[in-house]
Amino acid sequence: MLDSGRKVFFNQLIAAFKGWKDSRNDPSKAITYGDGTPLDRDAALAAADLAEEVAVDLDWQQGDVALLDNFVVMHGRRTFKGTRKVLASLAV
Q1: Where are the beta strands (DSSP E) in 1-62?
Q2: Which of 47, 58, 62, 75 has the highest Cβ tally under 10 A?
């Protein structure tokens, strides 16, 4: 809970469960409890579905800039065609 009193949820659960699929990462084993037991698949999918339900897409125009508070919102990108240039700055 933040000082504002709002409850938030942010972590890499969805990225690890749905996005990290390569020779080093098995999504079914990516998220575990402290004892090593894998997180229930349906629970992980429910979290991903909820994130999709409340997602907001930005209608980007050339030159746009987005500022996000990582303590309040998760961020990501959808698949796309073309090139992109990412400039990032982190501040506390």
Answers
A1: none
A2: 47
